[in-house]
Amino acid sequence: MLDVRDVRVITDERAARTQLRGQIAALEAQLSDAVVSAFPDGGVHSAVPAPGGPRLLTLGELERIRDALADRLAQARSVLEERGERQEASRVLLERMLLEPGRYKFVRVANRDLGESGCGVWQVRPRLGLIGMLMGWWQVKLSSGCPLAS
User: What is the pTM assigned to this prediction?
Assistant: First the structure.
């Protein structure tokens, strides 16, 4: 026969499981958003070890899964933050190159450094070749893109 204390423990455990499953679901959604926002560059590791086989997980196992997801999410966010900072620095450099090409002679910025697709590269080059270089005529050019496949 069940004691009143046993019923309270079962109810408390059910509430704890429900709360942990809700936290896990929220963390999985945030982690999937981070993976999608990193696409197509990749670099965000999202795998969390599973406790093997279909069964009812204990509260400790649910807490370990939640903690592993929180760690992965923190790592993914730091990777995305670093990538965003690099892309922002490249955008600032490109803006400066466009404003004052003479100060950034032969500097190159690839589209992938800006977070854009394609194989294009922005480069400061002399206008009219050697004559332009001697005269100080500099311009920013975008390469035509990817080389032809061989």
Answer: 0.68
